[in-house]
Amino acid sequence: MFRSQVIAGILSVCGFLVWADCASAEEPKPTPPAGVRISIDGNSWSVWNGVLLPLAKEAGIQGQIDGTKEAKQRLEKGEIDVVTYGTHQPNDSYVAKIVEQGLKSNANFRFFYQAAWPVGDARWINKADEIKTKDDYDTTKIDHLQKYTDEIRKAREALADGLNKTHGKRAVYIVPVGDALVKLRAMIVAGKFPGVKRQSEIFPDAMPHLGGLGASLQAYCHFSAIYRIPPPAPAPLPEGADQAKKDAYAQQEILREIAWETVSKYPYAGIANTK
């Protein structure tokens, strides 16, 4: 009798597990958000174009349109939903002009203003410590970098507050790329970012512009802010991948995690206070 009860119990549990697996397998995947008509603006401080736009396809987003070409005319016709913008120095009057025109022709227009990283890590404040070569970035202290990144971000926030108040709605958002970059550099200093041993390795020059890893991080941050979802996972590694490819894959996973963590928790990016 007892043996029969045990067997019946096991079969019952097995049946439940099979049902649970099937139910889980049948759960619908989240529907991707609708694509936007997007224009990418800025100078050499905004190099996310080649990475940002393809991310929509990777995420299964349909209908995204690159409106960067002839953006002015498109903006005036109401054919732009989103402008992303980044420079190494503030250009508040230009931002105000674009936001005004965007909202005039499209009530749902959104402007994403990059809060970037300081030129020369703001080490020009102390001439004796000023950045002169790319290798000098290896000696930057993370707390110093965060301090001046905070200043840049707060200035962008003040502009966003003013413009949103002027227009009576939230149309200007801030993308905290500078903070994401601080997190990346802190990981490098701590020896926790695969394939990169020194901070200077992510920069091609002493200004510093961004290399490939930084451009990817920028793009992931802007994607997360615009679509309010995490960047899609990188394409799976092929079998038998060598260590360099494994490091590159791990790097992209980490960059996407940094971007989502930074953007999703930052209210001015428009995600943290929309849930």
CATH architecture: 3-Layer(aba) Sandwich
Top CATH class: Alpha Beta
Into which percentage range does the β-strand content fall? 5-15%
Give the tally of structural domains. 1
Order of helices and strands: HEHEHEHEHEHHH
Please report the distance between the alpha carbons of the first and last residues: 54 Å
Which consecutive residue ranges, at least 5 long each, have pLDDT under 50? 1-24
Radius of gyration, whole Å: 23 Å
Compact summary:
By secondary structure, the protein is an alpha/beta fold. Helices cover 48% and strands 8% of the residues.
Observed structural traits:
8 helices; Rossmann fold; disordered N terminus; single chain; five-stranded parallel sheet; 8% strand; alpha/beta; 275 residues
Write the layout of secondary structure elements.
Elements: H1 2-26, E1 37-42, H2 49-58, E2 65-66, H3 71-76, E3 82-86, H4 92-105, E4 110-114, H5 142-167, E5 172-175, H6 177-189, H7 212-227, H8 243-264
Parallel strand pairs: 1-2, 1-3, 3-4, 4-5
Q: What does this molecule look like?
A:
The chain is α/β, with parallel strands linked by helices and about 280 residues long. The protein has one domain (about 30-270): Rossmann fold (3-Layer(aba) Sandwich), CATH 3.40.50. The protein contains eight helices and five strands. It has helices at about 1-25, 50-60, 70-75, 90-105, 140-165, 175-190, 210-225, 245-265; strands at about 35-40, 65, 80-85, 110-115, 170-175. The protein has a five-stranded parallel sheet with strand order 2-1-3-4-5, with helices on both faces. Strand 1 (about 35-40), helix 2 (about 50-60) and strand 2 form a beta-alpha-beta unit. Helix 6 (about 175-190) crosses helix 8 and helix 7 (about 210-225) packs parallel to helix 8. The radius of gyration is 23 Å and the shape is globular. It starts with a helix and ends in an 11-residue tail after the last helix.
